Amino acid sequence: MAPEQWADLWTGTRAIAPLMPGAVVFGMAFGALVQVVGLPGWLAPYASSTVTAGASQIAIVEALRQGAPAIIAIVTALVINARLALYSAALAPIFAPFPLRWRLALAYLMTDQSAAVSSFEAERWPDPVRRRWFILGVSGPFVGVWILGTAAGVVLGPVIPESWQIGFIVPLMFIAVLVPGLRAWPSVAAAGISVAVVLALKDLPYGLNVLAGALTGFALGSLVPERPRRPRGEVPPQAVPEAGDP
C-alpha cells in the first residue's frame, strides 16, 4: 500500500472516530441483550459481522424476548432495513468508478454512520482511487469496533448494572447520524412523524410501535412537498422590486 493510500485510510478513520465510542456501547447493548434473552453468546458477534445492521439485530432479539411471532420480528427487521435501499441510491454515483470487488466489499461494510460520513465527504475526494481508500478507512474500522463492542457485551453483559441504562445509546447514535442529513422537508417530516408515532404507541406489545412508526413516517413523509433550495446569498423572488416600483 502506498503512503498516500495509508494517509487516505487514516483520514477516513479520523473522520468517523467521534462516532466509534457510540458503536462500542451500542454493540455492548446488543451483546448484553443476547445474553439476557438466553441465546448462545457466539451468536452476537456472528450477527454483528454478517448482518452488520444493529437496529434490526436489536429489534429481532427484542421481539423474541417479548415472545413475538417470528413473522413480526422478520417484518420489523425488513422495514427497518429498508433504509439501506436509500443508502444504495445515494452512494451509487460515489461508488460507480470503483472496481466491482471494491463496490462489493465497501457495500458489505456500509452502516448508517459510514454511509452518512462517506456521502458528506465524497466531494472532497474527486480521485476515485483516493476516495475508495478514504471510504474503506471510514467503514472498516467502524465495523471492527462494532464487532468488538458486541463481543464485550456478551462477556460483560451480566455484570453491567441495570442503572447504567446502556440502551440509551441506540437512539442517540441515530440522532447523531440523521440530524446532519435532514436537509429536505420530506426527510424532516418522516423523522418527526416516526418519533411521534413510536412514542405515542410505546405500550404496544412486541415492539410494534417501532414498526408502526417506521411505516407511518415513510408513508406520510413521502407526501410532503420538497421545497427547492436557493443558493446561499440569492435574493428571494418576492424581494426583487419590479420595474416601476418605488
How does this model look, in words?
This protein has 246 residues and is mainly alpha-helical. The chain has two domains: 3-181, no CATH class; 183-226, no CATH class. The protein is built from twelve helices and no strands. The longest helix has 29 residues, at 128-156. The chain is globular, with a radius of gyration of 21 Å.
Describe the protein's topology.
Elements: H1 3-16, H2 20-37, H3 43-50, H4 54-65, H5 70-80, H6 83-95, H7 100-109, H8 112-121, H9 128-156, H10 169-181, H11 185-200, H12 208-221
Give the structure's gist in a few sentences.
With 246 residues, this protein is mainly α. The chain folds into two domains: 3-181, no CATH class; 183-226, no CATH class.
Radius of gyration, taken over Cα atoms and rounded to an integer in Å: 21 Å
Helix content range: 55-70%
The run of helices and strands is HHHHHHHHHHHH
Give the biggest beta sheet.
Answer: none
What is the tally of helical segments? Answer: 12
| Mean pLDDT over all positions | 78
Ends distance: 67 Å
Relevant terms:
mainly alpha, globular, single chain, 246 residues
